[in-house]
Each structure stands twice: as structure tokens, then as C-alpha cells.
Amino acid sequence: MRWNHWILVGVGAWLLISPWTLGFSELNLPVWNVIFAGSLVIIFSLWESSPK
To answer: Cα separation of 10 and 35, whole Å?
Structure first.
């Protein structure tokens, strides 16, 4: 796995935990938005880095 895929996994993980670390976890729509976006970033990054 190349190093840039690991950076994208880290960005996706940051998106997943950002509502609680940045303090907007009580806002329902933005929380689901960043959870969905972070999950997609992690999934697509791992998918792209898998052997073909």
C-alpha cells in the first residue's frame, strides 16, 4: 500500500471522529454527512490500494 492511501485513511478516520472532537455531535445532519463521507473515503482508499 502506498503512503498516500494511508493518508487518505487517516483523513477518513478524522472525518469519522470530527463531530465529537470538534463539538458538533448534537447536530444530526452534519454528523451523518461526515460519517458517510469519512466511510466512503476509507472504503475507496482501501479499495484502490488493494492488489489488482
So the answer is: 14
